[in-house]
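Collaborator request, handled under Task 6.
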Amino acid sequence: EYQISDLPTPGFENSEIGANEYFESVEKDITISITEVMASNQSTITDEDGDYSDWIELTNNGGNEIDLAGLYLSDRTENDRRWTVPSIKLSPGERIVVFCSGKDRADVTRPHTDFSLDGQGETVSLYSPLGAVISSISYPALADDQSYCVEESGEGFFTTGFATPGYPNTDAGYEQYQ
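Structure tokens returned to the collaborator:
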């Protein structure tokens, strides 16, 4: 008998145990990072409603396509499953902007979380299906239209007024975005 389940189990038993075994098998291959955060978007990029929503950029740093289905984003450490990332496939090096608008939309081209970001600073984390932290950024207070970025080398962070949503966090990335 078929039934609808929120727990994928490809190649494993169709049960919670099978889902856990599946997630453990793929968790080690998750190469997604939070690479840029803007917590007070006033004029940088609009969403499909024309609103200037806060946003997070996710990047696939690995060599294989990754499906984000089953991952979670949260700005609360006590709630690692705050917002479920929809099934979005990112090719190696590809980036996607996830709007933090409170609109809660699972659109695969313009997703929106059910929460907004705090311009005074906070921690934003990406969690695996089993609740392990995959990527996390603790950003400081940000002025309007400032973003907090990961260096392309992955070695550090910087605050800038030259955001690059969907592009590398470099001067060339800023030119591409413009």
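The cover message to the collaborator said: "DSSP finds two helices and eleven strands in the chain. The chain has a mean pLDDT of 90. Please let us know whether this matches your experimental observations."
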